[in-house]
Amino acid sequence: MGQTDIGRMDIVRPDVLKIEEMGPVTDSKAQNHKVLGLIVVASALLLFFWGIWSIPLLSHNEARRLVVVREMLANHQWLTPMKNGLLYFEKPPLFYWVGNFFSLLSGSTAEWVLRLPSALAALFTTGFLYQRVSSYIGRQQALFSVLILISSHFYVMNARRAEINVFFGMLCFSALLLYFDYLQREKQRYLFLSFTVLGLAALAKGPVALVFFLPPLLIYGILQRDWKVFRGLVHPLGWSLFALVGGSWFVYALYGVPDSPLHAVIQKDIVVNAYEDATPDPFYAYIVYLLGAFAPWILILFYQPKRWLKRLSSARERFMLCAFGVPFIVMSCFAAKHGKYMLPVYPFLAIVLGCVVSDVYDDFGQRWGKSFHTFFIRLAGGLLAILFAVLVLAPPHTQKHRFEALKPFAEKIRSLQGTDPVFSYRREQIQLIYYFGSPIPVLDNGQFKRKLELGQSFLLVAEEADRSAVEGRGLCLLEEFAPYLKKKRKGLLYGTSNYCQISKGKDPGMRRVAALQ
Predict the structure, then answer these.
(1) Residue-wise over 260-285: b if at least 16 C-beta within 10 A, else e?
(2) What percent of the residues of the chain are helix, what percent strand, and what percent coil, each to the nearest 5?
């Protein structure tokens, strides 16, 4: 009997397999499953959604996504994303389109509206994970897998932000599971759905989507000696769907936009970041990230490792391990490594850990019975409660330095600006741009000098590190904002000589920095 036939048996009699894997289900155990299920559902909703409306932007990366969504909505340029008034092709537009959908639906561009794509993607991932693992492996394993995923602080933290990698991860995860559906259920609609979703993943983040799809399927096909895996991967209609959905925007961006910046982006992302980074991260960097992101659950792998390694003989667990392990190895070979790059494999690692935890749960449950089941419920509930306190309740207070100056800073600029332009010195102040509501072009030192020589009137945003370069050039320091993004950083607002005269009459506290040279 071939491996494909084994896969068919998994579908024909899943109830028998689940009973064999889960062991005898006592009333105590079933009751604890219900309680744990309620805790998991409530925790997922609270962790992903609660308070996303009550905290301003927390990161430079989140601000970039939200500014692009807002400018796309304002300019009605749906195919050419812009950031700070300039074309921005660093990422394809799907995430921005979804953000615009929620903005148009709600009539708002508030932070919580633009965070919905990430939060909903995380919620869909957990639901799809539970449904498929419950179908193919068992309900207990599915429940523990979801528990482990939503108790990963790094996953939850990014799900609560406008983070493209959570949305991208949902698409990669779904594409692989749909392909597994095709292998198990022998229906081509799952194959075509898989390639379509893979195309959406490429439209969300680019060709890197293939790293999370092709290598794990190839390795899985080799290990299982299942030629159906390879037949699906060469299906012309499947790749046509992928190219139509995922490639059409790239063709437009490369050949339909004059002087397209996409060429430079490709050079940077594929060549520089992947292979030629001046200071490449160590090969083991992702191991450290994952150990921290899945603590304490990942420690379970050190308990009787031979036992869980035997699970690899099952086609289902082997597929999940390939879906996690192969992209993990491939991505570790790249020069630039960031924890968020691995978010697409988090659900698969959660499944692997969920299966191991399920075995250990059965072992200790048979030894200690109801007392262990109660202990496990309390442990899970305690971990989720701590996570809620740290990621939901604490940030508005512990992370105040990241955002408290942004709204007052933006309001001050608006109150002084009039018809004069406002610029930023050398650095893009992307978080400030979001709250200001309009682009703030960046001036390098040469452009700054020329504007002063021409006697132009303008406002200038700078940071404390730029004080020595800006002062002494005929500008007034109108106001300082501290802390600005970091605890020991200051944001500075300067104005040209005409603002110095106005400020003398309106605010005696404003000081003249230097006379116009």
Answers:
(1) bebeebbeebeeebbeeeeeeeeeeb
(2) 70, 5, 25
Cβ(18)–Cβ(139) below 8 Å: yes
Query: Residue 197's pLDDT is what?
Result: 98
Strand ranges of the sheet holding 442-443, from the earlier edge strand across to the other edge: 442-443, 422-425, 459-463, 491-495, 476-481, 511-512
Q: The whole model's pTM is what?
A: 0.88
Between CA 195 and CA 242 the distance in angstroms is 5
Helix 285-293 vs helix 315-332: crossing angle, to nearest 10: 130
d(CA 256, CA 235): 29
Whether the Cβ atoms of residue 323 and residue 216 lie closer than 8 Å to each other: yes
Contact by Cβ (8 Å): 183, 6: no
pLDDT at position 200 is 98
Quote the pLDDT of residue 374: 87
Classify 246 as helix, strand or coil.
Answer: helix
Q: Alpha carbon of 341 to those of 31, 290, 328, 479: distances in Å?
A: 38, 11, 10, 39
pLDDT band at 22 (very low <50, low <70, confident <90, very high): very low
**Rounded Cα gap, residues 208 and 270, in angstroms:** 9
Report residue 1's pLDDT band, with 50, 70 and 90 as the boundaries.
very low
- First-to-last alpha carbon distance for the chain, in angstroms, is 89
Instruction: Supply the mean pLDDT for the chain.
Output: 87
Query: Helices then strands (H, E): number in the chain?
Result: 27, 8
pLDDT in tens, 65-85: 999 999 999 999 999 999 999
